[in-house]
Amino acid sequence: MELQLRGITKRFPGVVANEAIDLDVRPGEIHALLGENGAGKTTLMNILYGLYRPDEGEIRIDGRPVVFRDPGDAIAAGIGMVHQHFMLVPVFTVTENVMLGIESTKGPFGFLDRAAARARVVEIAREHGLAVDPDAVVEDLPVGVRQRVEIIKTLYRRSQLLILDEPTAVLTPQETEDLFAVMRSLRTAGTSIIFITHKLNEVLAVADRITVLRRGRVVGTTTPAEATRESLARMMVGRPVELEVDKGPAKPGPVVLEIRGLTVRDDRGHLAVRDLDLEVRAGEIVAIAGVQGNGQTELVEAITGLRVPIAGTVRIAGREVRFDPRRIFEAGVGHIPEDRLEDGLVPGFSVAENLVLNTYHLRPYSDGLRLRREAIIATATELVDEFDIRTPSIFNDVANLSGGNQQKVIVAREFSRPVVLLVAAQPTRGLDVGSIEYIHRRIVAKRDEGAGVLLVSTELDEALSLGDRIAVIYGGRIVRILDPAEATPELLGLLMGGAHPEAGLPEAVGAVEPGGRADG
Amino acid sequence: MADETPRPSPIEAEATGTGADQLTAPTAAPPAQHGGFVAALVAGASRGLVPALAIVSAFVVGALVIILSDRRALPLWPSDPLRALGLSLESVAAAYSALLRGALGDPATYVAAFGSGDPQQIVAAFNPISESLLSATPLIFTGLAVALGFRSGLFNIGAEGQLYIGAMFATYVGFAVTGLPFYVHLPLALAAGALGGAIWGFIPGLLKARTGAHEVITTIMLNYVSYRVIDWVLKQPFYQREGRTDPISKIIEPSAQLAPIIEGLRVHWGFVLALLAAAAISWLLFRSTLGFEFRAVGLNPAAARYAGIGIARTLVLTMSIGGALAGLAGTAEILGANKTLTAGFSPGYGFDAIALALLGGSRPAGVVAAALLFGALRAGATPMQSATGIPIDLVVVIQALVIMFVAAPALVRAIYRIRAPAVSGVEGFSKGWGA
User: Fold this and answer.
1) Can you give the three-state secondary structure of B77-118, one letter per residue?
2) Residue B19 contacts A where some CB pair is shorter than 8 Å
């Protein structure tokens, strides 16, 4: 299918989300749509999918102008969309989910013809290398497989143009590779794909052409051959971007975090952290590298008081702490939690209220009984300005901010007070390049101010570029602490998979899976 | 990013009209950045729009109910629809005007009363309004109790039981303590009523905090316990009125009674107390450190815990304060209106409270407005029945319809073609059904 967007403009009250956008997608092409959060990618795709009507401009398919009143029209025209948040019924099987909405029936009473649907699911899956069990119940499937189900759903509806909205945000590196293989297979079969992302490596790896949006406008269209990570980042952000972290050598001081024999159970009662020892010094960044699910979450929860360990001690600045969030806060710990919206923010609170979420009870924000509005507003106004939080006002609900700006609210709150230890768990997950660069700079600045930083990241690049020491975690234990100079990706990959390279025993090289959490 | 000017996304832009009040919420003037007073007015109006339309819709459907149950008009529909329509509309007009007169008074009576210049007549003309405010008084208290719970993510269905236990405590202090001047005795009786309710709220709060027992279950069960406690206490010699065999308490000492605001009318100082309580709860929720904790726990308990807020403490405190408010509802009713405790004296004030909290958007000012409406409906219902023969039950139907429309804002928006506002997490009550 050949798609042409001509002069698409969409205005919302007070803002032009898309302005005179032209976009061509050729048959059998992977066309990446690149842009920061809020650049207008999603609005444009919602117009293409019939969820919004454009104020101006037209959509042409194979040269003919079309008007989509609702997603039904778009689907009928051969457009399929895989949303960031999947639209699947958890208790249905894969086949049932795929046939939902266009159920095939048989017999006079219109019984569901599951067999026919199943056969087509199997066929589509085989054709494009989408490994899926058609009879599996969706809620039992990992995220990567659910995404395949969504893709099969669109192909089942005979889509010739597939919109993938940030498909890799939820995938592991291996699953991302699998997805790219599927995308290439679809391209070979003549399907066009619009691939929305803000990850530069992926764009260069898989796209045929790249269109960059910034502030609702097309900045330009290029190809992976002509573009580099740096040039794309510059197009997205509108200025040169530091992709590498710029930091001087660490000047380690006294120990600010001392963990001895820490043992923590997870929610299901299994041992997630086992007899773990670790030290972080003032003025250094210790990066915990590991495959997700090897105890990182529980380790951070224990250090920050959200989870009470079954054994072991944590000392902060030399003093043993009780495992209670407020005590640990008072001991001088800042915490950027892994799950922003779950732990770090109250979405229904305003930006101002979230900025004082853990200091509201202290002077000058409270006199013990009463909140002091003026002080809160003054601080919030200052922080919004200093940390460049994009919000119409400090009184807007945090729920209405973009992901990057939500993270900035947390960063502003945790970085603006003096801390001896900063615990940052996945601080840049799901953020665009501009925000990532910004948050990395802030973390390094915090280190240079003399705070100890414990960084937990599943992004290997991040751990390697930020960490002054790399602590590899596997199966709830720190298996090795490396200097970044000796920590090659290969060695890290082996250690993260549970191998012992120096002993010549790469017993579990292939087992780089989130299976390190064996029962205790 | 540094060279970009702040640019709101579409969603953010839509939210600016309504989301401006979170830090200060309903009581405060808006921040200057939002265009001052006018913006506040617009925000306030749009917040009340759906409830207002829900009320209008309820009266329209209520009119249909009257038409469909009009025995005079019903047989005429096939033969003479015009006449049937005329008769039906007459019935509707008669019913609603009688309801209005019963709730707010008859203009003719006002004119006559003021014309005569007789103070007694003037006071009497205001009797309907007095009755409306009298009915609204316990509803304001219980509505606040439930609304406060919603704000902390708790579904307090136990306001009825808390009301009874509060009334029981207040009654005892009201008749058993003698020889005190009213300025000591009355506050003492009020405090006792609040304490009784607080105890009855504290129990489910503690159960939830310690064991995770769901407050919906425990409060419903404690309602039943409270009924039987009242039955029991009313049969005890120290409590039951001398010389009576039926379950009725001794009479409240005059020094513990809430006096009428105006002599000759029944509305008493408990109404003023209820308004003060609404102001206090509003301050508590939106201006105090404690209220910040309540709302944080209600909107996102995980983040509240992360921020160092004691969840258990918040749950227990919310339930206790809510219980105290509900206890004051029963107390005001006894000390102000009934002067004695009987079993079943509450016609479900504690259950209407859930509707009031919903209708009022869990905001103290909204609860007061909703309670005034329900109070007026209640007060106007009896005069309507005696004047037109349309049963009191119509009022119950209208109340139910109001709640239905309020609970289905999408329906109201669809009927009146209003654009949906940007979603915000303000209405935290649904959290009560969570884990």
Assistant:
1) CCCCHHHHHHHHHHHHHHHHHHHHHHHHCCHHHHHHHHHHCC
2) yes
- Orientation of helix B182-211 relative to helix B159-176, angle to 10°: 150
Chain B: closest CA distance from residue A179 (Å)? 30
* Highest-scoring range by mean pLDDT, A399-408, B348-357, B388-397: B348-357
Measure CB to CB from residue A348 to each of B287, B291, B426 and give the nearest one: B426
Measured between CA atoms, the residue of chain A closest to residue B14 is A13
By CB neighbour count within 10 A (0-12 exposed, 13-18 middle, 19+ buried), where does B94 fall? middle
Is B15 within the bounds of a domain?
no
Domain span including residue B85: 40-428
* CATH number, residue B237: 1.10.3470
Convert the pLDDT of each residue in B373-391 to its tens digit.
999 999 999 889 998 888 8
Does B6 contact A391 at a Cβ distance shorter than 8 Å? yes
Phi, psi for residue B217 in degrees, rounded to 5:
-70, -50
Looking at every residue in chain B, the average pLDDT score rounds to: 85
| Partner-chain contact B3 A239, CB within 8 Å | yes
**pLDDT, tens only, A362-403:** 989 999 899 999 999 999 999 999 988 888 889 999 988 877
Supply the ipTM of this predicted assembly.
0.80
Q: Is residue B10 very low, low, confident or very high in pLDDT (cuts 50, 70, 90)?
A: very low
- For the segment A243-264, what is each residue's pLDDT rounded down to a tens digit? 777 788 889 999 999 999 999 9
Contact A400 B424 (CB under 8 A): yes
Q: Which of B33, B293, B300, B429 to mutate to test the interface with A (most CBs of A within 10 A)?
A: B300
Contacts of B7 in chain A (CB under 8 A): 15, 38, 215, 390
Q: Evaluate whether residue B9 is within a structural domain.
A: no
Question: Residue B396 corresponds to which amino acid?
Answer: V
Give the residue ranges of chain A where pLDDT is below 50: 504-520
Place of tokens 């109001």: B402
Task: State residue A497's pLDDT score.
Answer: 74
Listed residue (A133, A144, A146, A165) closest to A88, CA to CA:
A146
Q: Name which of A306, A360, A376 is nearest B305 (Cβ-Cβ).
A: A306
- Tell if the CB–CB gap between A390 and B13 is shorter than 8 Å: no
Residue B164 lies in a domain: yes
pTM score, two decimals?
0.77
**Cβ <8 Å between B16 and A14:** yes
Helix (H), strand (E) at residue B31 = none
What is the spatial distance between Cα B190 and Cα B252, in angstroms, rounded to a whole number? 12
- In total, how many domains does chain B have? 1
Kindly determine whether residue B6 and residue A390, on different chains, have CB atoms separated by under 8 Å.
yes
Residue B32 domain-assigned? no
